[in-house]
Design a protein that fits this description.
6 helices; single chain; about 60% helix; about 120 residues; mainly alpha; three-stranded antiparallel beta sheet; 3 strands
Length: about 120
């Protein structure tokens, strides 16, 4: 799965937060100075071609809808990072977090306990 650029992520965050929208509604969510309608429209069409958005026709206009949830994108992105940087080993990734003290051994034990008890 393709990773979102910063601008694409900004647009997707707006869709994930506000739901289905027309491009003109999306433009209104930007702070001033607002980007040009055509610029945002192009970015939205790219997101659609990459499978992040889909559209519903309303007369001559399209209302765009997320084709993937934020949670699913996060899962897929994490999977890509694990594949690309940890030789597809989740164990290596967790080990790296422990070694770099991003997660403590006690937190890891608590996580294992939660998993074992179905929490």
């Amino acid at each position: 799965m393709k990773r979102l650029t910063a601008k694409e992520k900004e647009i997707m965050d707006m869709f994930w937060q506000h739901g289905p929208m027309f491009v003109r509604e999306l433009v209104q969510l930007y702070p001033d100075p607002k980007p040009h309608f055509n610029t945002v429209s192009t970015q939205v069409r790219i997101l659609e071609s990459n499978g992040f958005l889909k559209h519903e026709a309303f007369g001559n206009s399209y209302r765009y809808v997320p084709a993937i949830s934020e949670k699913e994108y996060g899962r897929r992105s994490l999977g890509s990072v694990i594949k690309d940087y940890f030789d597809n080993s989740y164990l290596s990734a967790v080990s790296a977090f422990v070694k770099e003290e991003k997660i403590s051994v006690d937190e890891l034990k608590n996580l294992i306990d939660q998993i074992e008890h179905g929490e």
